[in-house]
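User: quick one, sequence for these tokens?
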């Protein structure tokens, strides 16, 4: 039941403000490209998607004015029908986002993303506990929770579950990963202050968010390290010739190429894509 209520809590936060989803997705993609996040089969030291999501929600709680309310505030807003106690933990919060007051924070998602990197680039992870219930970083050791049978397991990165207060969501993260996370945040924050982040490159280089989501370093002048590659099935081994030979030029390879291009336009460049007329089939003598 705790997992179910955690999921409902994340859904409430996503519905409370339209900036939550894109910001969470952006941070998760960035962390994956920097090899900071994943779900290794052996439960290794990488951050999981739940921990990254909670980091984003905590960050949004601490803006001025806040984008999201604290879990303690949500508990105060919960009605009688919203009350829930699971395993001794108070998991009360409103089920309907319409009962929450809209945030007075008017920052854009891109501005918030850059600020996220700035905040966590200099964050004292081992010396504090990130508390979504209080919406602030607590000093070590954290005050004991009345419901807790055991104390919070402390480590290089201390991220308290919003309801099960004895659970450190990032307990598996080791010192090296926590240090790398801070280092990558500092590099991303530096890049977000550069002209390459705000202006299109005159030399055809990746810029803006696209460059931020490339694997590896994102500091200005990093060159072509970790190029952003999307495979389109037209290789040098006869792919284009095979496409032209397909009846009407619109066989499986044609649609695979269309899907890859649509992904670039829609998900990378954030263009609005709509269905249009089918292109004329290439002639037998034409080059693709």
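Assistant:
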């Amino acid at each position: 039941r705790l997992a179910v209520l955690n999921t409902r809590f994340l859904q409430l936060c996503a519905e409370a403000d339209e900036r939550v989803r894109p910001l969470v997705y952006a941070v998760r993609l960035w962390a994956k490209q920097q090899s900071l996040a994943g779900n290794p089969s052996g439960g290794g030291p990488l951050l999981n998607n739940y921990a990254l999501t909670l980091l984003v929600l905590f960050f949004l709680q601490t803006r001025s004015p806040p984008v999201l309310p604290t879990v303690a505030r949500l508990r105060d807003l919960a009605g009688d029908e919203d009350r829930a106690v699971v395993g001794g933990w108070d998991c009360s919060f409103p089920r309907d986002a319409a009962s929450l007051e809209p945030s007075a924070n008017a920052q854009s998602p891109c501005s918030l993303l850059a600020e996220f990197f700035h905040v966590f680039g200099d964050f004292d992870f081992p010396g504090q506990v990130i508390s979504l219930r209080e919406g602030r970083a607590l000093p070590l050791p954290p005050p004991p929770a009345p419901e807790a049978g055991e104390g919070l397991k402390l480590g290089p990165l201390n991220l308290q579950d919003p309801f099960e207060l004895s659970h450190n969501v990032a307990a598996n993260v080791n010192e090296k990963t926590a240090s790398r996370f801070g280092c990558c945040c500092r590099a991303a924050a530096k890049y977000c202050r550069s002209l390459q982040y705000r202006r299109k490159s005159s030399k055809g280089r990746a810029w803006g968010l696209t460059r931020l989501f490339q694997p590896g370093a994102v500091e200005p002048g990093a060159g072509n390290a970790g190029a952003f590659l999307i495979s389109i099935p037209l290789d040098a081994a006869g792919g284009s010739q095979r496409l032209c030979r397909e009846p009407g030029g619109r066989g499986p390879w044609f649609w695979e190429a269309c899907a890859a291009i649509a992904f670039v336009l829609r998900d990378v460049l954030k263009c609005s894509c709509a269905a249009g007329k089918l292109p004329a089939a290439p002639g037998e003598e034409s080059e693709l």
